[in-house]
TrEMBL record:
Keywords: Membrane, Plasmid, Transmembrane, Transmembrane helix. Coiled coil: none annotated. This is FUSC family protein. It comes from the Bacteria.
Amino acid sequence: MLVATKSRQPSSFAKIPISSWSFAIRVWIATVLALLVSFWLQLEAPSTAALTVAILAEPTRGQALEKAGFRMLATIVGVIASIAITGLFSQTRDLILAAFAVWLGVCVFAAKLLDGNRAYAAVLSGYTVGLIATQQIDYPQNVFEVGMSRGAAITIGILATAAVNDLMFAPNHYPGFVVQLAALHRRVRAYARASLNCDPGSSPIFLQLLRDIVALRPAIASIALDSGSGSVRSAAGRSAVVALVAELQAARIMKVALFDVATRDQKTNIAYNRVDHSGFDERVRAPRADAQLCESGAETETSAWAIKELLRRKDEVRENLLALRSGRGPLRTWRAPLYLPYRTAAESGVRAAIWVAVASAFFVWTGWPATSVSLSFVVLIAALGATTPNPRGFTAMALIGAPIAAVLAGILEFVILDGVDAFPLLAIAMAPFLGGAALLMTSQNLLWSSLGRVNLPFITIFLAPSNPQTYNPQIFLFIFVFILAAAAILLAAQTLIPPVSDHQRRTRLVAAARAELERPRPLKRGSPEEAMFRDASRLEQFISAGGAEDSAALAEMLSCLDQSAMIRFCDAKLTQLADGPLASLAHEARNAIVTHNAEALRAVAGRMREKASSKSSIEADVSTSLLIASELIDRGSRIEHFREASR
């Protein structure tokens, strides 16, 4: 008799997972430890140590260590830049502000070409100058001393975070990463099965899968810091992500190019599902096998080739997952390159520099006292906003979150503490505020998570823990006004000179995809799989810019993705024939690809098929891939003509 069992649910307290409570407690203890050591060493900026803990608040050990390493490196770069800028322009305030705006623009440019903690390190190098050089603009001789003091406090914050994560057994990142990859692999297989079933409505599923896979890329680097075998696991994870994109693309090419010839019979379905064996934690049941066909006709060589290619890609993902679990190197090590939108990054850098210049001009014109503090917050918000898809939205969130953090910090400082100078009481009083913000960060709701991430550092900034603790309402009010003014002025500058629009980003991405397709080049570095991942990252950027709403442009981007993947695959196959008796045919095929001549490709494929010694020979393989490429080129031409006619 079969007994139904409930799926195991994660343990929770007050309907909040225990893992979230553990994370909140770790953040609080690390903050208290950082402050305790800073007070004991009598550092000049103990609040910077606490702020470092808030910034490094990540749920897993590897993520926190990776971010800590980039924070230390970026701080060193920022301190060096601060010394250089103040040393060159110490006699001219306007030139210091101009040089600083240019430096921030360069850092934002770099951030737009990176992702994850690398992008954060780029903007940190920029706003570190704002926190050091700008606030010491009237005392340039103090820049080195302030930089060293900030570096010491950041080091204390990093060591406190690392120690607490180790002592409280913070989870490693790679187990959760493996679970994510396995879940994505199941979804890719379900999409592939739908393609075999000729399901015409699975394009949104493809786009969501592609975005979810590409989104895993920033997390791969943190696996390297989880354990001694972390670097090997990181390489396996990177190869697994690339292989997943290749499997997903193989399923799509089968669906798009072979919709009229693919069949779904019992033999096809069972052949696909039988590959799923001991390498996985789960079994996949074969769908109901029947004689229903997508269209009238029998299974063709092209559909058989497409299914064979899909199975090969599936095996590659399985092997990489096994390598990731066991901590051994992958059979094939792939990079996961990103598409680099240089023009958009450069324009974003220029606009960020202009925003800071406008804010600087405004503060100089007003002549308000201590406006360098407010300008520092302008730089901080502008830099951090550059790592988000919507910089202006991030500024608006800071404008909303700052008053909330100010109210919470005010209650903590003037109601709960109210003149207390004993450190244990300070530590206990901070627990609900820091822990509550950390709990919000773990929420699945994007709004609550964003508010938690904004409030955790802002509460520390407003409280500004010191030894002894100061209770000056005037200073508290000034800090609040400075932050609020910084966010408001930056939002006004971003409204006057808005960030690069989503429409501009989409237009440039489509133009880049079209230009690369019109001028295909032989692979000089990397593999077709790596180039496929790069194209997938470009499509993900297009979707992030609202591309799902532009159906015509989306169809062209998908067509370019399909054609590029197949053309690179054909190029790699033709390379194997370059020195043999079929070299002339391979040359003709390359010319047909360059000119996008589908008829010529079909003719070459037919002649290649005649030379094939068997169905499994390299000639037969190349012939079939050329036929599929010709079909994709035909489909791309129809999409392009339709878009031109609709303009």
